Amino acid sequence: MGTEPTGTTNSSAGSGGSGSRTARKRDSWHTTSPPPSAGANGTSGGDAGHDEPPDGREPATNGNSGVDGGKKQPLSASTTATTETMAQVLQSGKERSMVVALTGERRRETWSQKAEFLLAVIGFAVDLGNVWRFPYICYQNGGGAFLIPYCIMLLFGGLPLFYMELALGQFHRCGCLSIWKRICPVLKGVGYAICLIDIYMGMYYNTIIGWAVYYLFASFSSELPWTKCGNPWNTDACSPVTGRLNATLTSTTTAATTLLSTNAASTATGATALVASVLGNSTLATPFASTAHQLHYHHEHNLLTSTIPTMLSNFSSSTVAAVVSEVVGVVTEGPVLSSPAREFFERQVLEQYKSNGLDFMGPVKPSLALCVFGVFVLVYFSLWKGVRSAGKVVWVTALAPYVVLLILLARGVTLPGAAEGIRYYLTPQWNKLNNSRVWIDAASQIFFSLGPGFGTLLALSSYNKFNNNCYRDALLTSSINCLTSFLAGFVIFSVLGYMAQVQNKSIEEVGLEGPGLVFIVYPEAIAMMKGSVFWSIIFFLMLITLGLDSTFGGLEAMITALCDEYPRTIGRRRELFVLILLGLIYICALPTMTYGGVYLVNFLNVYGPGLAILFVVFVEAAGVFWFYGVDKFSSDIEQMLGKKPSLFWRICWKYISPTFLFCILIFSLLGYEDMLGEEYKYPEWSVAAGWTLTLSSVLCIPTYAIFKFLKTPGNCRERLILIFKPEPLIPTAIPGQLYTGTSV
């Protein structure tokens, strides 16, 4: 990777670092010239592209370190033949500073370019949720008015946590496990909880990418397979858009005729005749599935609640009740139709009709397992070399989605009905701001979109140069993430407006959230466009690249953490470790590739990271802001950037951000059943299994705390002091260079 710059140097190491950097505070790191013998040690040249992580232990010395009137002892040239850290400790009043010359045996890579880091962070934050969840959440919670709570939650909740993780990773130069011995050792269980959550995510998230891969290969045909019915997987209820319109209009006429011919008594009163005439003249444009489903449509709702009761106002209540009951009975016997796109997803890609849910999921679907295997292969060859390989891949996976989004936007806004869809997306409903649920949805969307707490931001920023401006990076990448969500809303709603016009429906009837939006609704819209094959290919390529970036980040967080924590057993064998890790995750993910795998995917999404990550991040924030301390954390940032964070950030870190997390956690716990959805009723045993899954990661925190307490020597009071006290820190250095700074 790229070479870490040497910074400002002095001609004399003994001067105590009197270069331009000494204008900063005494506790900031300063660079001096390497000793003349450093080159003989092999630390320049081939090792120049690496950086040294903090050791977290008291440094080994060469026997010359000590105190001599506040002057630094000259370093012995003979020590260059060893691989130990050389340090000199100075005593100046109550402050203890150290000088460290580091050799090249223990090395840490850095990003070869700043752009690679930014693309990696953007790629992780901008995921499938930006496309399939934000547009739905936005229009459901007040359209343009939703942007107010969204931006407020970004500023006071999401962005401070995002900035925190980037700064922590860059300063301490290690992953989510090793970092805790420098912050609050008793909370190291947070790191293990994060690793377990990342495994759960890898088990289902890659399967969703596999669905997109399946669609991509299916798109390479003269006609998209979900355009028409008549395929082997289609049922008799399958009907394309025009067929559904004709069938529905026919059903209204049939309903009117049936009403007139089956109830002579009602006909005599004239009540049923009036109702039948209304049905016969109506132009219902939706298939009838159930009474509850029916009443969601404004046309039918008006018929049954306004038009028909007004016509029947002169009849007795018993007659009205009998006629309305009869109308509902006949109407709900109409055809239950499904689109070719829905049947392709449910009956061809998933084949979920062969399963009855979690009780019987069926065997693994080979074609789907092969697609997911291909995803794991791509992930392996992107991560096996660390930032050297990942840094090259993100140029494609992070930039390609933006190219495709802009192309789809240009196509979408030219479709008939697109303006109506965008208007529906942006029109503010100010009264919604009085609903607390809107604010909670805004907070949840910000949190899960930016992704603090998954260990990814820590891992990615740990490969930065020490003086990189992580504050500016946090502002830039989080802003791009939110703007991408907003842009995706235009892409989605322009197409939904087009579909609503073609199908003569309201946008509410057309739209779905979640996987249904990108695997049913949008593909159906693409099938109606000219050049549908091209649009389908680029759309699913976009989904694949969006998903890959996020899975890169989650897995890299765990890999970095374990390599840093166990450098001799895992760190030296990274390529083999990544291979074994991905192989095990793939085997564990096989149940998500069965015929009932879609139910397990949703189940893992809710009970794997969905609830646990909120608690884990709350504990992480408490550990950093309350135990380690906002003042100390601010001083760390000052050492990197040359100035402390403003009062705004310190208040957010100490009070607002933890409150932000606590509120999301409580409301998520209260509404966890809504997170599972209503289409499938999960069995009772699965709920118990789900909470067990959630607790498996959450309990890592108290379990490790108990272990740490029992392992630490001393009496009870001494143990409590030690397990909360950060271990001494050796400053980050470049091989062969000297750094001075405050020992903590």
Task: Describe the protein's topology.
Elements: E1 30-32, E2 50-51, E3 86-92, E4 95-101, E5 108-109, H1 114-125, H2 128-132, H3 134-140, H4 147-172, H5 189-219, H6 241-262, H7 264-269, H8 271-281, H9 291-294, H10 298-311, H11 317-331, H12 340-349, H13 366-383, H14 387-397, H15 400-412, H16 418-426, H17 436-450, H18 456-461, H19 470-503, H20 507-510, H21 515-527, H22 532-565, H23 574-589, H24 597-610, H25 612-641, H26 647-670, H27 672-676, H28 684-698, H29 700-711, H30 716-724, E6 738-742
Antiparallel strand pairs: 1-6, 2-5, 3-4, 4-6
Helix pairs in contact: 1-14, 1-19, 1-22, 3-19, 4-17, 4-19, 4-25, 4-26, 5-13, 5-22, 5-23, 5-24, 5-25, 5-29, 6-8, 6-11, 8-11, 12-21, 13-22, 13-23, 14-22, 15-19, 15-22, 16-19, 24-28, 25-26, 25-28
What would you say about this model in short?
This protein is mainly alpha-helical.
Name the CATH class of the domain at 116-232 and 347-724: Mainly Alpha
Principal-axis shape equals: globular
The radius of gyration computed from the alpha-carbon positions, rounded to a whole number of angstroms, is 31 Å
Helix content: 55-70%
Low-confidence stretches: 1-106, 242-269, 279-301, 731-744
What are its keywords?
744 residues; mainly alpha; Amino acid/polyamine transporter I; four-stranded antiparallel sheet; two-stranded antiparallel ribbon; 30 helices; 3% strand; globular; disordered N terminus; disordered C terminus; disulfide bond; symport; sodium; serotonin:sodium:chloride symporter activity; transport
